[in-house]
Amino acid sequence: ATPMARPRQEDTAVPEAFTRFDRQPGFRQVRMIQEGAQRFGVENPFFHVHAGTASAHSEIAGHPVINYGSYNYLGLSGHPQVNAAAKAAIDRYGTSVSASRIVAGERPLHRNLEQSIAELYGVDDALVMVSGHGTNISLIGHLLGPKDMVLHDEYAHNSILMGIQISRAQRFSFRHNDMDDLERLLQNHRHRAERLLIAVEGIYSMDGDYPDLPVLVDLKKRYGAWLLIDEAHALGVVGHRGLGIAEHFGIDPRKVDIWMGTLSKSLAACGGYVAGEKALIENLRYLAPGFLYSVGMSPPVAAAAQAALKLLKAEPERVAALQARGAYFFDRIRALGLDTGSGAGIAITPAIFGSSLHAVRLSSALLQRGIHVQPIIYPAVPEKQARLRFFLSSTHSQADIDITLDALRACL
Ligand code: PMP
């Protein structure tokens, strides 16, 4: 039989909006942002190129800047021991493991890293994946199904929401850090689901605040739910030794069902982890799609995370310095009369201006004075919540902060 001739594009009645990339809503939105920046005479605040390692100091367009845009909280990205570990791993194992770990991609440094992470939390086991964002998607997407439910903080990270979408579980959000609102949802909906997951973050990266862990542990027990805590911004940041939100509250981490976190922030690498009971980790190790159908973690990346973890444990003074800088910065910025929202004086401090344009202009003016701080604008946050967001690092000095506050004062 002769194959049917396919109609040419111009013969079909398909509107161009369905075929042309420059007609897509996402592209139009990007254009609007770019044209808006031009119209208001501000520089595009996105995709600034940093010339080297970015911690308290960095270099943009040939100019040195005091940098508040990176989450190199403990200054470990670029640390000689971390770099040396990554280089040694390349010499021994190459740059790629060239297969999923379940087939030919397993190397000793994978399990070593996982055991170190499990030890940190005092739980049975852990699993690492090549992306933090992908970890939440694979974890939640694999663990839950359509008969299940997720109750999540309204500010939960995009990766948590994407995981829920993939799982097809029902979801409801509760007001930010509002445990009464969460309990109301539990009362109203617990009976309508088989498994129920409460998903929160250890530290919220837009606001620099945290949930009431003791209440969460109590609620999850009383309502027969699992508790997932995303520690992306909590590990290395809170707790005496930087062990995260459980240490901050003095709670046994084994009371939390699922610890999730990233290797990309305090741990100076790239990727995500899940830590918890053996039965959870084994399930993921054999079946979670983002693990099973993805290459094993690159050797230098795993080795860098392991070296950073070792430094985190050996040098708690880094954590203490970060916490001291965070508190100092917070006090001074509040003394300027700025709105720090629900910020709690830790390594992330927002300064809320309530106008995207104002935030972008201010960020641009600060950059002229050698201060790099990212504006967070609509739609990442509601327009009235548009802000500058300052990430502190243990490597910021008090002098850096004082210079920054002088610059801010001059720009306000
Ligand atoms: N969870 C949270 C709370 C995050 O803030 C982020 C990223 N900033 C991720 C997950 C994703 O992690 P990664 O960037 O390492 O992929």
From TrEMBL:
Keywords assigned by UniProt, alphabetized: Aminotransferase, Transferase
Protein name: Aminotransferase class I/II-fold pyridoxal phosphate-dependent enzyme
